[in-house]
């Protein structure tokens, strides 16, 4: 199809401007042309082909844990170039890569992509959203946070992400925030 859509949340190199176009379209501030650049889950799966499938809201389970991101579906795409990503209105997970990580890391990846749905394209905000959600829901313990930090520690910073060690330090502060219930 030759069409390339900006997305949030992938560790792939992408311009901040692309994420802002997506955020503007989500918020209704962009013109019609920008909204056309954001696919529906059906358009995305048709475009990528392969084994990509749409999982309805509330139907996804990761290691027996139901994962919910409001009324947003999740596309399972084993050809995605990362563990997860997000477009306004839906999440994308790579089940092939997720099979290689521990349950807390899988759930954090999902919650991070869900964070983009509620908080926009900022990566640190999505990280904080994810660890606070995990703490509130009881699936993220201090040991699980250690696993997440170990998972992201090798990551180098880029235009969208701080280096893994910086992200970890920030997530630890978010996790320990006493105001989170």
What does this structure look like?
A hairpin with a 2-residue loop joins strand 2 and strand 3. The longest helix has 17 residues, at 103-119. The chain has one domain. With 181 residues, the chain is α+β, with helices and mostly antiparallel strands. The protein has helices spanning 16-27, 32-36, 41-48, 95-98, 103-119, 123-137, 142-152, 164-176, and strands at 53-55, 61-62, 65-66, 74-76, 84-87, 90-93. The model is unreliable at 1-6 and 10-33 (pLDDT under 50). The chain has eight helices and six strands.
Helix content: 40-55%
What does the radius of gyration come to? 16 Å
Q: How far apart are the first and last residues' alpha carbons, in Å? A: 46 Å
Number of DSSP helical runs: 8
Beta-sheet strand percentage? 5-15%
Q: Order of strands in the sheet with the most strands? A: 1-4-6-5
Task: Summarize model confidence as the mean pLDDT.
Answer: 81
Major sheet characteristics: 4 strands, mixed
Unreliably modeled segments: 1-6, 10-33
- The succession of helices and strands, N to C, reads HHHEEEEEEHHHHH
Number of strands: 6
Give the helix/strand class. alpha+beta
Shape: globular
**How many structural domains does the protein architecture include?**
1
């Amino acid at each position: 199809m030759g069409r390339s859509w900006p997305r949030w949340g992938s560790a792939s190199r992408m311009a901040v401007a692309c994420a802002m176009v997506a955020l503007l379209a989500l918020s209704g501030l962009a013109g019609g042309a920008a909204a056309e650049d954001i696919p529906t889950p059906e358009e995305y799966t048709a475009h990528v082909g392969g084994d990509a499938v749409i999982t309805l809201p509330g139907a996804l389970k990761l290691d027996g844990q139901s994962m919910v991101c409001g009324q947003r579906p999740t596309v399972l795409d084993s050809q995605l170039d990362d563990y997860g990503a997000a477009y306004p209105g839906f999440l994308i997970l790579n089940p092939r890569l997720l099979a290689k990580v521990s349950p807390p890391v899988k759930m954090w990846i999902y919650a991070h992509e869900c964070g983009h749905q509620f908080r926009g394209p900022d990566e640190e905000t999505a990280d904080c959203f994810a660890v606070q959600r995990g703490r509130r829901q009881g699936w993220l313990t201090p040991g699980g946070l250690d696993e997440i930090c170990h998972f992201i520690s090798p990551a180098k910073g880029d235009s969208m992400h701080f280096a893994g060690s910086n992200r970890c330090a920030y997530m630890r502060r978010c996790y320990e925030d006493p105001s989170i219930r």
